């Protein structure tokens, strides 16, 4: 009896020490969820610079170890409008509203950014022929279509509308990127460096943060010419009125 008790308490001690070790290990090497840098992208599916930023920019997060310190949130609404009757109008027309909704449904279907990002990138890389190739490559066809054809997609888009319209400061154009809530303005080209700089957690910095390519980032290209301004829609409407 005594022996059993002693042995079970020593087992407990061993287990406790293992748990401590495991905890220390994960604490040192894996960024805690709450420490991660919050990188939000406010975009719309058919704005050309959004497409290239998703396909060629954001891929750096998942192609490297940057994802270990990054909490990426994609917000597919952009410069769309919501009427008083909750009708959504998109800057690049109906097709853009459709793709925004499909992408919202993909995020809902696969909450892990390292999963839904690849599907959304697949769409953004080829917005005309995405349907057969992306569903074949990543699956999810039934879940995403069911979501798209139900009220759920509308609810999701109104949620993204809310997030976009409550931005402080307001977004001026898309793609609009915030790092821990701060707009990046002209820094889109070096968003990797901005994420590395913003990381204050205990895990060691990802290797990509030390790469020499980062320190000598070229001054931002002509981002201003490529973004889609929020007022473009208004200008267009104003012209129609004349
Ligand atoms: C992008 O789309 C083209 C076709 O437009 C395709 O050939 C290519 O494989 C796609 N790339 C990725 C990364 O999906
Ligand atoms: C927007 O979201 C906030 C908080 O998430 C909520 O309180 C508010 O009712 C929402 N507004 C709309 C119009 O959905």
From TrEMBL:
Record keywords: Glycoprotein, Signal
Pfam families: GILT (PF03227)
Signal peptide: 1-32
Coiled-coil stretches noted in the UniProt entry, renumbered to this chain: none
GO molecular function: oxidoreductase activity, acting on a sulfur group of donors, disulfide as acceptor
Signal listed as a keyword: yes
Top-rank taxon, per record: Eukaryota
Claim: Cytoplasm is one of the keywords in the record: no
Similarity comment: Belongs to the GILT family.
Protein name per its UniProtKB record: (rape) hypothetical protein
UniProt organism field: Brassica napus (Rape)
């Amino acid at each position: 009896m005594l022996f059993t008790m002693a042995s079970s308490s020593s087992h407990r001690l061993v287990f406790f020490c293992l748990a401590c070790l495991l905890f220390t290990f994960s604490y040192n090497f894996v960024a805690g969820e709450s420490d991660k840098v919050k990188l939000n992208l406010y975009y719309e599916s058919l704005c050309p610079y959004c497409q290239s930023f998703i396909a060629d920019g954001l891929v750096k997060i998942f192609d490297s170890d940057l994802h270990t310190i990054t909490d990426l949130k994609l917000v597919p609404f952009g410069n769309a409008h919501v009427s008083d009757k909750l009708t959504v109008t998109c800057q690049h027309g109906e097709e853009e509203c459709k793709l925004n909704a499909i992408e919202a449904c993909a995020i809902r279907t696969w909450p892990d950014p390292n999963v839904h990002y690849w599907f959304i990138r697949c769409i953004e890389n080829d917005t005309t022929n995405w349907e057969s190739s992306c569903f074949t490559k990543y699956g999810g066809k039934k879940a995403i279509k069911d979501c798209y054809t139900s009220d759920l997609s509308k609810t999701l888009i109104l949620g993204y509308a809310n997030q976009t319209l409550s931005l402080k400061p307001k977004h001026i154009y898309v793609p609009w990127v915030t790092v821990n809530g701060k707009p990046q303005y002209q820094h889109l080209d070096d968003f990797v460096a901005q994420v590395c700089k913003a990381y204050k957690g205990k895990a060691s910095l990802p290797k990509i943060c030390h790469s020499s390519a980062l320190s000598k980032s070229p001054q931002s290209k002509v981002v201003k010419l490529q973004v889609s301004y929020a007022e473009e829609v208004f200008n267009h409407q104003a012209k129609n009125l004349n």
